[in-house]
Structure formats: structure tokens, C-alpha cells
Specification:
single chain, 277 residues, alpha+beta, six-stranded antiparallel beta sheet, three-stranded antiparallel beta sheet
């Protein structure tokens, strides 16, 4: 079998395969191919989607298993991989803060793009962001053409001017942390594919895992610091009665006065009490 890439009169790209069977196959409105061919465009597109998904998984695996890389470096790298996968130039991680009584705030944590309003530390009310819809959506929220979808006049579109957006929630320890999203000023002609949606979900899952790991590492660090502080206090408190016991024992040996051993006993009792406490 031979596979050919053709372009129709209307500019549409199609893939056909010579299989030795005479067919009249429509490739566009009012256009037909006559000959021993079969249109395999859909299968060809599925193969390309599969290859892109494999490339994504290999990239994600490389980031997740790269030694000596902290969580923030991995997240930054994931935001670089995302645009390559979904075909959008910018990727961002946000933190959603909803406990200030004002309806909530979106804050940019990491930026994989140069949008001046979407740099780390920048914030806006959730009501003026696309992410307000993302955190309400199970799975992926997407807008491939904002104006066509009726977003012109919306505060989010007016503020950021994003013509194309795809994002999903990020959870840390089963709680909402924020969102991962990819965007472009220009709209897309075609809706997002299943592979692209899966890519966004996978990246958000890895970002959530890295944030959980970072949180656990910080908690362990704080716990170790408290343990070091506690150990220092205990060591200091034990050192005083221990010095008393050693001194009285030396005096008992030098003088033969066993009364010193009463002080040794009291020092030991004090140390036992400290240890039990």
C-alpha cells in the first residue's frame, strides 16, 4: 500500500492510501477523488495524536525522574513542555485564594510566558479571570476561540485579551490549590483534541504531586528544626544534674563520706524525671 498526502482545491490536507480498489471518495464539498484509493485522513490524525502523546509522556517521565531537581524547577519545566504539547505559547500555575471574604483572588505562582499581567506575584479577582470557570469544572475547561464563544465583553477577556485558553484544577492533599493553564492571545481554528486535554490533566497532576512533595519536605524540615531545638533544651537541662552527680561522686571517693551519694541519688532522680517528661 502507498499513502499520499494531498491538498484539495479548497486547501484542505487529506491522506489517501492506494489499496487497489476503485472508489469515488468525497474529500471536500463538491470535490471527489476517483481511483484506487481510500481516504485514511482520520487514521493518520489518530496516529499523529498517539505520537504526540507518547512524546509528552516521555517528556513528563524525564521531568519527574530527573535527579537533583527541586519541585519548583520541575514545575517550571512542565510549563515549558505544555506549550509544545497543546500548541499554545504560554503556560502558567496559579494559586487560588478564597478565604479573604472578597470573593477570591487568583495569584500567579509560576509563569512560562511573557504576558505582562501574568507574571509571578501578579494577582486579580477570580471574577476577572478565566480560572473562575476552571475551578468550577470537573476535568478541563477550554476556549479555543474566545470571541466566537461569546467571551468578548467578559471581564476576563477585557483584562487579559486571551483568545485561546485551556486549563484544569490543581489539588494538593485533596484540597484546591489553584490551576494550570495554557493560553494564547490569538484564537485557534480547531477545538482541542482528547490528547491535548489529557496532556493538560497529566501536567496538572504532576504539578500537584510536586507541590505535595515540596510541602512534605518543608514540613519535615520544620519538624527536624524543632527536634534539634528540643534536643538542645533537653541536653542543657540534663547537663546540670549530671554535673552535680559527677562532682559528688568524686568527693565521695576522695573523702569516703557516703553522704555525698544522697546528692548523687537526687541528681539521678532529677534526670529520670526530665527524661520521663
Amino acid at each position: 500500500d502507498l499513502t499520499y498526502r494531498i491538498v484539495t482545491k479548497g486547501g484542505e490536507v487529506r491522506w489517501i492510501r492506494d489499496q487497489g480498489q476503485l472508489v469515488e471518495h468525497p474529500v471536500a464539498d463538491g470535490e471527489y477523488l476517483d481511483g484506487f484509493v481510500t481516504d485514511v485522513t482520520e487514521r493518520k490524525e489518530r496516529e499523529r495524536e498517539r505520537e504526540r502523546t507518547i512524546d509528552l509522556l516521555e517528556g513528563l517521565y524525564d521531568v519527574a525522574t530527573r535527579p537533583g531537581t527541586d519541585a519548583r524547577e520541575k514545575i517550571a519545566r512542565l510549563l515549558e513542555i505544555g506549550p509544545e504539547t497543546v500548541g499554545l505559547p504560554e503556560g502558567y500555575l496559579t494559586r487560588i485564594e478564597t478565604d479573604d471574604g472578597s470573593g477570591g483572588v487568583q495569584r500567579i505562582v509560576e509563569a512560562g510566558g511573557d504576558h505582562e499581567l501574568l507574571q509571578p506575584g501578579a494577582s486579580c479577582p477570580i471574577a476577572e479571570s478565566y480560572c473562575r470557570r476552571t475551578i468550577e469544572t470537573d476535568g478541563v475547561f477550554e476556549v479555543h476561540d474566545a470571541e466566537a464563544a461569546g467571551w468578548d465583553g467578559d471581564p476576563a477577556y477585557e483584562r487579559f485579551g486571551l483568545g485561546c485558553y485551556i486549563g484544569t484544577r490543581v489539588t494538593v492533599d485533596d484540597d484546591l490549590y489553584g490551576t494550570v493553564f495554557f493560553a494564547s492571545d490569538a484564537p485557534r481554528a480547531e477545538p482541542f483534541s482528547d490528547a491535548e486535554r489529557t496532556s493538560v490533566r497529566l501536567m496538572a497532576g504532576l504539578v500537584g504531586y510536586e507541590l505535595e512533595r515540596e510541602r512534605a519536605t518543608e514540613a519535615l524540615k520544620r519538624r527536624n528544626e524543632r527536634l534539634d531545638e528540643f534536643s538542645g533544651i533537653v541536653s542543657h537541662d540534663l547537663r546540670s544534674p549530671l554535673s552535680v552527680a559527677e562532682g559528688r561522686l568524686t568527693l565521695a571517693r576522695e573523702t569516703g563520706d557516703l553522704a555525698h551519694l544522697d546528692h548523687v541519688e537526687r541528681a539521678h532522680n532529677r534526670m529520670n524525671a526530665l527524661i520521663e517528661d
